[in-house]
Specification:
The chain is an alpha+beta fold. The chain is 67% helix and 12% strand. It has helices at residues 8-33, 41-44, 59-68, 94-108, 121-149, 156-185, 191-221, 227-259, 262-284, 286-295; strands spanning 46-53, 75-79, 81-89, 111-119, 305-307, 313-315. The strands form two sheets. Strands 2-3-1-4 form a four-stranded antiparallel β-sheet. Helix 6 (156-185) packs antiparallel against helix 7, helix 6 runs antiparallel to helix 9 (262-284) and helix 6 crosses helix 10.
């Protein structure tokens, strides 16, 4: 039987390699920008411009006008129908707006300006605080729920704690990806980034619970085996299901990445990286961490007697 649990130091090292660039980026961004993440106008404030054209227009084509003018953080999307589009970008001077109007009309013809208003940064800051609070509360409820669901297993809070640590791992890996892409192509954190993060969290916790549930079942079935052996057996039994599910999701993500257009590219790529990190953490982070905790050491090989589900003991 292939011993994935005994190679946990390797898996933890790989996780550190994926997370450290994000931590460095957050520190650097905090020093240079005053904020740990590169925030776009959804959080820093900017302008919301709604335009209606005579003919259908792709949001990516309209956004390109702004990118060529030097506003790379612009986002464009369709509203109501294919004729009406909204554009979000940083605040500009009146003369800069006139240049944009001329460029848009030269390429796409005349249009109707339906609204042009500023977005205050305080609104974005409030949304960010609420999102962070929501994630924190969700993590606490996840820990409590898993501890309750695994209450018949010794040390049930360890299962919930390891699931939350895996959740944090996935968020940090996703932030690391955004940091790298910010350096390379100028990507910034927008409102839809929170949607990607919450989706990643849900998928990660689900995969982790599947593995933990199999560990719980096998603790009853193989009462005389060591805890590390039971955990390794459980992981191998769920490995095909976890990877198969992830491949199915990735196929959809790749299709959206290739054909979804420029406005979806950052969201889809971010969610794809988060999904991969979630699958990795449910296999190579949460279960090995649980085993290390049960053994009483994170990196050593010290064995001890570990209680199993029926109250008897087995060597960890």
């Amino acid at each position: 039987m292939y011993q994935l649990m005994q190679r946990r130091n390797i898996w933890f090292t790989i996780s550190a390699i994926m997370i450290v660039p994000g931590l460095i980026f957050m520190i650097f961004s905090m020093v240079t920008r005053g904020t740990p993440l590169p925030l776009n106008i959804d959080y820093t404030g900017g302008t919301l411009w709604e335009l209606r054209f005579a003919e259908p227009l792709a949001p990516a084509d309209l956004r390109q006008i702004f990118v060529e003018a030097g506003y790379a953080d612009t986002t464009a999307f369709t509203v109501d129908d294919e004729l009406t589009l909204q554009v979000k970008f940083k605040d500009i001077l009146p003369e800069e707006k006139e240049v944009l109007i001329a460029n848009i009309e030269n390429r796409f013809g005349t249009f109707e300006e339906r609204s042009y208003r500023s977005i205050g940064p305080s609104v974005g800051a409030e949304v960010a605080r609420a999102a962070v609070g929501a994630v924190a509360v969700a993590a606490i409820f996840i820990l409590l729920y898993i501890a309750w669901a695994f209450r018949q297993v010794p040390h049930p809070t360890r299962y919930g704690s390891c699931a939350v640590i895996a959740l944090v791992h996935d968020v940090l890996v996703t932030i690391s990806f955004i940091g790298i892409m910010n350096w390379l192509v100028g990507w910034e954190v927008d409102a839809i980034f929170l949607t990607a993060i919450l989706t990643v969290i849900g998928k990660s916790v689900n995969d982790t619970i599947v593995v933990f549930d199999r560990i719980r079942e096998n603790l009853r079935r193989y009462r005389t085996e060591r805890y590390i052996t039971v955990a390794n057996r459980s992981l191998l039994e769920t490995l095909q299901r976890s990877i198969g599910t992830q491949i199915t999701v990735l196929l959809i993500m790749v299709a959206l990445l290739l054909f979804g257009g420029a406005t979806l590219r950052q969201f889809v790529a971010t969610m794809m990286v988060g999904m991969i990190a979630g699958t990795y953490s449910s296999i190579f982070v949460a279960p090995p961490l649980l085993v290390a905790w049960e053994q009483g050491t994170l990196f050593g090989n010290r064995s001890r007697r570990t209680p199993v589900a029926d109250g008897t003991t087995a060597t960890a």
